[in-house]
Structure formats: C-alpha cells, structure tokens
Amino acid sequence: MRILITNDDGIGAPGLMTLQAIAEEVAGEDGEVWTVAPAFEQSGVAHCINYVKPSMISKIGPRRFALEGSPADCVLAGLGELVEGEVDLVLSGVNRGNNAGENTIYSGTIGAAMEAALQGVPGIALSQFYGPHNVELDDPFEAARDHGADTVRRLVAAAPWGGESYKLFYNVNFPPVAARNVRGVAAVAQGYRGDGRMGVTPQTAPSGRKYLWISGSAQGEKTAPGTDVRANVEGWISVTPMRCDLTCRDALGQLRDAFPDYAG
C-alpha cells in the first residue's frame, strides 16, 4: 500500500511523527509512506487552496516534502506531482486538538481528507482531543499512537467509500485519555456544541494600533448522544463519515414550495 500523509500543524509537528508511525504500520513492510506537509502551520484554513499564487516545494528527505501551501494544496501536490506511483490512501493529522463539532468546519486537517475524496482517493482525517487526562502525559498523542493503525485498518477494510458522485471520507477523533483508558470505537454523527462559534478578542499594541485575535470556545462541552464530542469526552474514538455535498436535503421540499417554477 502506498500512503500519502499530510497535516495542518506543519512539517515539524509532533502529531505528524505519530501519523508517520501509524501509516508505516498500515502500509506494511512492502508499502510506502510519502509525506507532503505545509512548511508552516496552516491550522484553521479548512479546504483552502492557493490557486492565485505558486507554492514552493522543498525536498527535506526521502519521500518527504514541505510545501508552502495549505493541507489541500499538499494533497494536490502529492497526488499530481510528487508521489511516484498511485496513492491508495491519504491520511491527514494527527492534529493537535480535536476536530469535532463545529471545529470540523474550520479544520485544515479535514480539508486535506476532503481534497483526497474529491480526487477519488480514500481519505481519513485523524485528530487527538486534548484534555486534563492526557495533556500532561509524556506523549499526549498516546491514544492516537496506540489505536490509530487498528482504526485505520478497520476503516479501509470495512467502511463504505463509494458513491456515484461525491466520495466519502472519514473524520476520526481520539479521546482525551491515556491509551489504556480508550473504551473502543464509536460510529457517530458530527455534533453541535452550540457555543462552539469562533469570536474575536481585540488588543491594543504599544503603538496604539488595534489588533484582533481570533478566539475559540470551550472544547469539553458534550454534544448530543450519538455524536462526536460526547463520544470523545466519554472515552471513545469517534468515527464520522463525511461527504463534500453540503446540500441540506431535508429543507429542499419546503424550498421548492417557495420557488415552484422549476420542474427539473
């Protein structure tokens, strides 16, 4: 198996080293792991692509490249130019922090898996939830490191990947606990924290200029039963199937009643 890995925390992020180990275990002795990751941190860029300016590529080792671009750019570069041969799987992460609930919408980690799906390649985003039960561990990525390869293998072997149009991709979040305390894997929906919106925090510099920091919200608030944040906070690895089609189909009927002229 030939696997392309990337992330949004940057080429030097510790979570990428965890993902490298996961990918090597999944690929096996006869497989290949290729890395194309952002040269600088790209957290929060979602599915951004840089099509108005070129992206410089730096080869920093065998099958290892840094790209001055977004995670989605890295997937495009890997699939279209850098990886020698056909890619069987794209893995993105392991993100430092959860990409559950509303975080999913902003995540560059998710954006990379989304781009893989748009290119027709199976894609999985992996993120490590941080909390009081793992942040002080010698390796905060312990849950992802110990359970990542098995979770990926099970997804590759048994999960649905097809679709007539937009292909599926998967969002995996490892719980904020030590590896020994992981309760298992839960197939769940994306949750809604309700207070998970981003905001702004104004600050004034010594020069008198005003700046705004983008600020987040509390991450441990449980979401509804059967959703990602609740599963994670309760010690479960969450696996959520996703698709790039953003249509709200349950609203189409009412919308067509409001605009009845089209009969297509």
Characterize the structure shown.
Its EC number is 3.1.3.5. Belongs to the SurE nucleotidase family. Its main location: cytoplasm. It is found in: Cytoplasm. The structure is a single chain. This protein is α/β, with parallel strands linked by helices and 264 residues long. The chain has a single domain (2-191, 222-258), classed as Survival protein SurE-like phosphatase/nucleotidase (Stationary-phase Survival Protein Sure Homolog, Chain: A), CATH 3.40.1210. Helices cover 27% and strands 25% of the residues. It has helices at residues 14-27, 71-82, 103-106, 108-118, 142-158, 228-233, 252-258; strands at 2-6, 32-38, 57-61, 64-67, 89-96, 123-128, 168-174, 184-187, 199-204, 210-215, 236-243. Strands 3-4-2-1-5-6-7-11-8 form a nine-stranded mixed sheet, with helices on both faces. The relative contact order is 0.14.
Spell out the key features of this protein:
11 strands; two-stranded antiparallel ribbon; 264 residues; 9-stranded mixed beta sheet; alpha/beta; Stationary-phase Survival Protein Sure Homolog, Chain: A
